[in-house]
Amino acid sequence: MSWMELASTYEPANADALSLYDQFRMFADDYRVLFIFIALIAVYYLGFATRIRMPILKTILLYVLLFAGSLIFGILDVTLPVKSALLVAIIILLIVKLRVKPERR
Questions:
Q1: Looking at CB atoms within 10 Å, which of 18, 40, 55, 87 has the fewest?
Q2: Environment class of 77 (CB within 10 Å of its CB; exposed 0-12, middle 13-18, buried 19+)
Q3: Per residue in 43-88, pLDDT tens?
Q4: Rounded to the nearest 5 degrees, what angle is found at the Cα of 15, between the Cα atoms of 86 and 21?
Q5: Are 105 and 99 in contact (CB under 8 A)?
């Protein structure tokens, strides 16, 4: 049993008949680090990347560091709402990108 299975925080009300929501929550608990990693990549490219194309070694280093951060956030996600905070950050950065883009023209 992996440490993420031990850290699972969601317990369905009826374990015999799982609803679609229950199945998604259990899937999200099992693959928490992957979801956080994808959200961190989205936050980086929406808010902090000045240009999309970087040299390949810098890109690899960026992804390695983002994955290390997602492991730390995966541990913190057991008690803190990390996935929700990243979702809110993505929404805010999307709104900012959409509002700033027409002003550039």
A1: 55
A2: buried
A3: 999 988 877 788 899 989 999 999 999 999 988 887 888 888 999 9
A4: 35
A5: no
47's tokens: 């808010």
Is residue 62 within 8 Å of residue 44, measured between CB atoms?
yes
- pTM to 2 decimal places: 0.75
Q: Phi-psi category of 71—alpha, beta or left, where left has phi over 0 and alpha has psi -120 to 50?
A: alpha
Structural tokens at position 63 = 């992804």
| Lookup result for tokens 């031990």 | 6
Buried b (16+ CB within 10 A) or exposed e, 27-40: eebeebbebbbebb
Question: Is the torsion defined by CA of 66, 72, 76, 78 positive or negative?
Answer: positive
